[in-house]
């Protein structure tokens, strides 16, 4: 019997795509990124023998919204703030730029497939014998959705809780911390035992997941304390003050120093403004 959940990992940014298989249909999550990779997800979903009923765009960033054309039967779901975030962030331009720069050809040519339905926190769907719930997780972007599959105790956490990336923060970090606490409550109550980050490796084990959540909260709290406390000294002083901080990927791979600096700037601006 086919696996209930299958995760595919792109060569690009280790971006993950999910396929959830139920008796009445299939759910695809962020199918991407390169053409053959999307083709592989489609091939896998097709041979399950059920229609792909739903496709979730976890958020509007360009590496998560490429797969719509491959799954025409799917009802595309995104969070309520997705259209505004898409208009402000211009990820479709980023896709064109990436494909032009690296001579990526998509057949048919890429055409963004907008969501059919905008959802709020707690939206629940069914694949017959498998349910899934969409969880609003703002903080990386305002429109981010996690996908919880309660029967499998699995959470697709979108761009949070990566083992290879730092948190990448929009705003002052408070929404991000609140979203981490929301996930922690699901893990602490036994509802999540496997984490699928949007970039990186599938992570089993409540203790490991909770340790990563605690690490990310500590990182953001520290950033808020150090960068936020520099509001009278200017942004460069905040960057300097945060240079000695420890963070995931500081001396490792992939390098995260630019992401760290972007976090300092985001939090500084949000807290000084
Ligand atoms: Zn993102």
Provide key terms for this protein:
single chain; six-stranded mixed sheet; binds zinc ion; alpha/beta; 2 domains; globular; 273 residues; Metallo-beta-lactamase, Chain A; 34% helix
Describe this structure in words.
- This protein is of the alpha/beta class.
- The chain has 2 domains: 1-159, Metallo-beta-lactamase, Chain A (4-Layer Sandwich); 163-273, no CATH class.
- The chain is built from 7 helices and 12 strands.
- It has helices at 35-46, 82-89, 91-101, 174-188, 206-228, 235-242, 257-272; strands spanning 5-9, 16-22, 25-29, 52-56, 75-79, 117-119, 124-126, 131-136, 145-149, 154-156, 194-196, 203-204.
- The strands form 2 sheets. Strands 1-2-3-4-5-6 form a 6-stranded mixed sheet, with helices on one face. The chain has a 6-stranded mixed sheet with strand order 7-8-9-10-11-12, with helices on one face.
- Strand 10, helix 4 (174-188) and strand 11 (194-196) form a beta-alpha-beta unit.
- Helix 5 crosses helix 7 and helix 6 packs across helix 7.
- The termini are far apart.
- 42% of the residues are buried.
- The mean pLDDT is 95.
């Amino acid at each position: 019997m086919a696996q209930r959940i299958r995760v595919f990992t792109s060569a690009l940014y280790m971006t993950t795509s999910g396929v959830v298989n139920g008796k009445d249909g299939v759910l695809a999550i962020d199918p991407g990124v390169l053409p053959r990779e999307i083709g592989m997800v489609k091939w896998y979903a097709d041979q399950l023998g059920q229609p792909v009923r739903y496709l979730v765009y976890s958020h509007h960033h360009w590496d998560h919204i490429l797969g719509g054309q491959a799954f025409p039967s799917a009802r595309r779901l995104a969070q309520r703030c997705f259209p505004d975030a898409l208009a402000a962030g211009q990820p479709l331009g980023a896709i064109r730029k990436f494909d032009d720069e690296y001579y990526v050809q998509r057949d048919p040519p890429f055409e963004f497939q907008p969501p059919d339905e905008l959802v709020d926190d707690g939206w629940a769907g069914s694949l017959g014998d498998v349910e899934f719930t969409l969880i609003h997780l703002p903080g990386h972007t305002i429109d981010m959705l996690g996908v919880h599959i309660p029967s499998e105790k699995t959470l697709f956490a979108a761009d949070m809780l990566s083992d290879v990336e730092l948190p990448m923060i929009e705003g002052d970090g408070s929404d991000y911390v609140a979203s981490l606490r929301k996930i922690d409550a699901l893990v602490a109550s036994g509802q999540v035992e496997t984490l699928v980050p949007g970039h990186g490796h599938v992570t089993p084990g409540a203790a490991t997941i909770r340790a990563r959540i605690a690490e990310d909260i500590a990182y953001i709290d520290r950033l808020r304390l150090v960068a936020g406390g520099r509001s009278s000294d200017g942004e460069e002083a905040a960057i300097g003050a945060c240079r000695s901080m420890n963070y995931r990927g500081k001396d490792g791979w992939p390098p995260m120093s630019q992401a760290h600096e972007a976090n300092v700037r985001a939090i500084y601006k949000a807290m000084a403004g």
